[in-house]
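ok trying again, last paste got cut off:
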Amino acid sequence: MLYLAEVQRKSRVIGSSKAELRLLACQRSENSWSAVPGEEVIPAPDDVTYGAGVLVMVELSGTKQVQRHAEAGRQLVAILQNFSRAQERYKAQEEEIQQWKESLTYQSQELNRREMEMEARQEQLQEMEEDFERLEQQRQEIESKRQEVEALKAEFDRKSQELEGAWAQLRGEMGRLDEQRAQFTQAAVLDDAKAQELQELLNRLAGAIAPTEAAREQVTTSFDLLNQQQTTLDQHYQMLDEQRNAAQQAQDALDQQVQQVQALWQEWQQSKAGLDQARDELAALRRSLELKQEQVQILTIQLQQQDSLHHQFCQLADVSDRFTVGAKVDVSSLESMPIEELENIVRDLTNDLEKMSRFVNSQEEELTAQQEEMQNLQQQIQQASEYDRLRLEAELTDEQDRYRMLEETLVGQRRNLQERQAVLKQHQTVLDKRQGRATADASEETVDIAPVLTQLETLRQDLAAQLKQAEAQVQELQAAVEQAQQSVDQQSQAQEDRWNRAMELEQQVLVQKAAVGEMWGKVNAYQDALALAQGGTGGVREKLESIGQILNQFQETSDYQLQAIAELRQTISSLTEQRTPEFVIT
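nice, full thing came through this time. structure:
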């Protein structure tokens, strides 16, 4: 299991300080760590050379034995980077959730507002229906009054015909009276019978005149009803104007929304061109990054080849006694010192070499595992999606940094191990010679391959410098790619927001257009109904005015007839009073 530990050292009176590892945290899963409770300290292996306070990654077995260890700096940076990326993704998800909440809240408010508008419109329609019912009742009352007026007119026509008949009879009697006046020029008197007959005719004529007061009262009542209906119609006309104004305002608002939708679509088209250009630039940067990464891989392979060649020379020095690696030992002092002391020195050098060998072998294994991890990441990058590729490339960069750091550390350790092997070999050769176990080749001259290794190291450093520069360029390109990707993501998000906003506003425009069309339909229907009611009222008013004029004419005629009847009665009375015995009309 992997642990994060802190190196602690306890000073000793004699010898170097002893290293211990205080466990701080334990890895539970790939991205999950938990603190180690209490103060748990385990002894460090002999190959731990870290200073006090250094944080290291330690892999422990089930019995809390250290299997592997390495400095934790790079891995902590990677963990923090992963944590930062997770925080950014979480923050982006929170912002997206908040946007969805705001959108749902806005839609809910919009639905509530539309529901209230529909309820208000339903109430208004109900009021209009009630007003139309009242108008229909008033129209029926006016229709009944009109029928009564027509009946009065028919009665008036009948009375007029009777009056015409009475006038015709009266004119006949007056004609006969004129004839009698011509016959009796010396006497202008009437007898009682004729006078009585003329009086009866005049009474019939006066009784045939129809009264107009009742008809005038009905006409006046009808005019009052018409005026009331006209007042109600004027109120409805005012309501119609208000509804027309409201419909016009809604139409103006709809026109503005249509213009906003058109402007949004134009803005979306313009930003789409910018987004396409940004994506092209991002693709070019990624291509440059891929080429630079290929260069890094080539330099890495060359560096590995140099390390392999260096390692082969070192192995050559290990397996052959004729080759040494720059180790200079004072052979004369070794030959003059006591053999027991020389044996102790050889034994100590052998123990140190074994420890150093184990440590270097463990580092070699870790380096091999690190190289396999980088190869796996490279394979995953070739098969990964666009989003995962960025994450894997960042992980690959971190793994390459750790590999280079471990490799640079291992180069010095290999050199140190080779030098110790050479020193031990020379000590062992002197010891064997003094103990009488010298081999036949012991007197042969050895070849120092240190200059060759130095030249190889120089070449390796040049390759490492080129690799470092290429990796720095890769990091710059990766930063540029990430920045360009963020810009593209932001533009894409803004483009998507514009699209959603335009679609949402367009849906609102469609709904508003239907509502405005409904409002105009109601206004037109209302206007047609009022025009129909106004037309009926105008026709009734014209008929009532015509009847009023006829009644006025009839009243004038009746007054004239009554005046004529009174004059005739006066004439008859004067003729009757002037009657004498010798001019009696028989």
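cool. Residues 184-188, 440-444, 580-586 have pLDDT under 50 and may be disordered. The longest strand covers residues 18-29.
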